[in-house]
Structures are given as C-alpha cells and as structure tokens.
Specification:
By secondary structure, the chain is of the alpha/beta class. It is built from 9 helices and 7 strands, in the order E-H-E-H-E-H-E-H-E-H-E-H-H-E-H-H. Helix 1 runs parallel beside helix 2.
Length: 197
C-alpha cells in the first residue's frame, strides 16, 4: 500500500509497550516504503510514530487544523503539513490521502477518527480497510462492546467483520494489503423492513 493513515494518542500512555509498538510500526512503514499519513503532532505516540518513520528513511505527511499549529504542537520535521480549518476537514483529507487506516492506542480523538472510518465502510462511502493494532489488549473492551452491539442487534455481523484486528504489526499490514470488503448484502433493505413492523 502506498499510504496508510494512523490514528493514535497525543499522549504516550503508561505502558512502554505502546511506545514500542509505535516505533516498530514506524520502522515497518519505512521498510515497506509505505507513506505515513497522520495528525501532524509532535507529542505522544503520534511523535514517536512519525519520528520512527523519519529515522528509518520513510515519508511522513501531517494534517492539522490551524489552531493546533498555532498552539505549537505541530511536527516541524516531517515532509509535508497540510493545514486545514477544522477537525472535520482534517479527517476528510486523511481519508482522501490514504489507502488504509490503522488505530494504535489512543483516546477520544483516536476513537472518533476510527469510528468515522467504520461508519464510512458501513455506508459504503469508503471501502478502504481499517485495522486495530491491539497492543497488550488495549482495545479488548472496545471489541467486546462491538460484539455486544452485534448480539443486541445494533451492529451487523458483516460490519463487525470489516474491522481487522491484530496484536502484531507485521500481520496487520499483511491483512490490510489482502483486504477485500466484506459484502454488506442488503442491510439497508433489511433495516427498513425491520422498522416497518
């Protein structure tokens, strides 16, 4: 894949394994000549990831709202920074620039970005794959929530199965490269029928 967008924390988290996973993923991007698209920050796991790509000879593109750039958290050492007006524009540009998406551990922002891509896939606005790098089980509770949503009838199996999950960055990149969208069948007709009862 030419370019992959990574969503991840602007904090480092408490476990050293989170930082190590970002370093390893950055090295892997550079080795595979995959361009990193990310939020452009010079803090947290975002900085660790970008620095790892750069240190290993890879290319890094950031996308950041003007306000955040003015707050001096932008990474000045990357190849290109796209300055946008809003967070919504930021997400749209990252979707446009990227062939696939990965979520490393992160907080509200990471969850927001990941959820938007999952919704795009559900609605077939985008068929680009999204994967979770589930470092030390960080996303286990979220995955249980998704499974609960399936069991309670709010998330369909085919949409749940569109999310690729791995604890290994090498395997995750291979799975993203091999991805083909799971058929979503006639789910819109199904929910219309269900709602008419």
């Amino acid at each position: 894949m030419k370019s992959i967008c990574v969503f991840c924390g602007s904090s480092l988290g408490f476990k050293p394994s989170y930082r190590q996973a970002a370093i390893e993923l950055g090295h892997l991007f550079a080795t595979r000549k995959t361009e990193l698209i990310y939020g452009g920050a010079n803090v947290g796991l975002m900085k660790v990831l970008a620095d790892s790509v750069l240190e290993n000879g890879g290319k890094v593109i950031g996308v950041m709202p003007h306000q955040m750039i003015h707050n001096e958290i932008a990474h000045n050492g990357i190849h290109k920074m796209h300055a946008v007006s809003t967070m919504a524009e930021r997400k749209l540009m990252m979707v446009t620039l990227s062939d696939a998406f990965i979520a490393l551990p992160g907080g509200y922002g990471t969850l927001d970005e990941m959820s938007e891509i999952l919704t795009y896939n559900q609605l077939r606005i985008s068929d680009k794959p999204i994967g979770l790098l589930n470092v030390d089980g960080y996303y286990d509770d979220l995955l249980r929530f998704f499974d609960h949503g399936v069991s309670e009838g709010f998330i369909r199996d085919e949409h749940r199965n569109n999310l690729i999950v791995s604890e290994n960055s090498y395997q995750l990149l291979d799975q993203l490269a091999a991805y083909s969208p799971v058929s979503t069948g006639k789910w819109i007709e199904d929910i219309k029928h269900e709602s008419s009862k």
